[in-house]
């Protein structure tokens, strides 16, 4: 159902996995911009999957939304500590789901643009530094 709702969004490509182990393996080779995890899954809980995703260098800032019907405060605290960014309660409201996904994807795009800009600035500083060093050497 989540895939069906989200696949209707413009500029969003949805990839679904029934197994969190397979999803984790895919994340090791492909950079996703957002992850939705269910709290109750076979083999790994949503908390365990979120924690493992956060261990991957490319997933330290990727938003993770946990879908759960459990409103237990301690579960949510544990999930936040494992790296979950936000929650969607089951049964989910489609409008709320779409709004949260759009907002977190916009945040992710901004993070990536900022990182690209920082890399560009670092390269420019490096070029300018080398020019100054070359001038100093000539003097």
Account of the 3D structure:
The chain is mainly alpha-helical and 139 residues long. The protein has one domain (2-108): Rossmann fold. Helices cover 58% and strands 9% of the residues. It has 5 helices and 3 strands, in the order ααβαβαβα. It has helices at 2-6, 20-29, 46-55, 73-82, 94-138; strands spanning 35-38, 64-68, 86-89. Strands 1-2-3 form a 3-stranded parallel sheet, with helices on both faces. α2 packs parallel to α3. The chain is elongated, with a radius of gyration of 20 Å. It starts with a helix and ends with a helix. The relative contact order is 0.13.
CATH classification class? Alpha Beta
Q: Give the strand content.
A: 5-15%
Radius of gyration: 20 Å
Coarse shape: elongated
Measured as a percent range, the helix fraction is: 55-70%
Fold-level CATH name: Rossmann fold
Tally of DSSP β-strands = 3
Total number of domains: 1
Distance between the termini: 69 Å
Tell me the number of helical segments per DSSP (H or I, 4 or more residues long). Answer: 5
At CATH level 2, the architecture is 3-Layer(aba) Sandwich
Looking at this protein, list some descriptive labels.
single chain, about 140 residues, mainly alpha, Rossmann fold, 3-stranded parallel β-sheet, 5 helices, 3 strands, about 10% strand
Brief digest:
With 139 residues, this protein is mostly helical. It has five helices and three strands, in the order H-H-E-H-E-H-E-H. It has a single domain (2-108), classed as 3-Layer(aba) Sandwich (Rossmann fold), CATH 3.40.50.
């Amino acid at each position: 159902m989540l895939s069906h709702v989200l696949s209707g969004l413009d500029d969003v490509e949805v990839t679904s996995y029934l197994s969190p182990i397979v999803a984790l393996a895919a994340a090791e080779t492909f950079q996703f911009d957002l992850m939705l995890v269910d709290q109750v899954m076979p083999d790994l809980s949503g908390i365990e999957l979120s924690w493992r995703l956060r261990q991957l260098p490319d997933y330290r800032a990727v938003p993770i939304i946990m879908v759960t019907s459990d409103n237990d405060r301690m579960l949510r605290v544990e999930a936040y500590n494992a790296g979950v960014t936000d929650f969607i309660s089951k049964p989910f409201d489609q409008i709320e789901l779409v709004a949260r996904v759009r907002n977190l994807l916009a945040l992710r795009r901004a993070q990536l643009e900022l990182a690209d800009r920082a890399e560009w600035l670092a390269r420019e500083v490096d070029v300018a530094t080398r020019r100054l060093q070359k001038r100093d050497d000539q003097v």
